[in-house]
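Thread: "does anyone have the structure for this chain?"

Original post by V.I.:
We have the sequence but no experimental structure in hand. Need at least a predicted one for the grant figures.
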Amino acid sequence: MKSNFFYVIYILWLRQIKRYFRSRARMIGSLGQPILFLVALGYGLGPTFAKAGGGNYIQFLAPGVIAMGILFTAVFSGIEVIWDRQFGFLKETLVAPVGRFSVMLGRTLGGATVACLQGVIVLIISLFIGFHPAFNSIPLAILFMLGIATVFTALGTGIASVLEDMQGFQLIMNFVVMPTFFLSGALFPLEGVIGTIARFNPLTYGVDGLRATLIGVSTMPGGIWMDGGVLVAVSLVFLGIGAWLFSKIKI
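Reply from O.Q.:
Generated one for you, tokens below.
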């Protein structure tokens, strides 16, 4: 029974990975926004940021843009649930003699892996734009990328489980994603009221964890231990909620 559980997870995880690598347009298109932010904001606002005493803006910005690339890829991976529902693949999966939790977990881990790969690609691109991370901390940074990806893939999958049209999913996700991104400290330092609000945003801890590992700067009192702990806790909560919503899908 356990072997069947893990086999289902592996097969659905592998399906997500293969779909990603077979869609070159998706791979290239999803990099447009991060590159735009790195170049336009990095070089455009860099002098102003330096004059204000903030130092090298690209060093500050790159971890936030990496998190952004992961966030958008992870959340919108949920749309594949709606796509599979419309084309009948989801029904065939759900009527199979396997648990729905294993189906949801396999899809979520696959989407999270794809989002993490996206973050690694953005990290590599940022090196050519002037970002200089601590290379010995990159393995730890990848763990934070995976944490961010798991949180928001589970969120996207859970929301997609209760929706049936792609337009509605995109509208709801834009309503969720944009405030999550701008209130995470990805683009500017968090201070005052915004800083207080941002503490309730799980992406804030992902961005702070990436900065702490890649450039050695953290604004959270507990440092990377607090960042990692929050991401793990939120991942478990979102996986639980997502699994419950996924189990309510009607065939």
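V.I.: this helps a lot. The longest helix spans residues 100-129.
O.Q.: and The chain has a mean pLDDT of 85.
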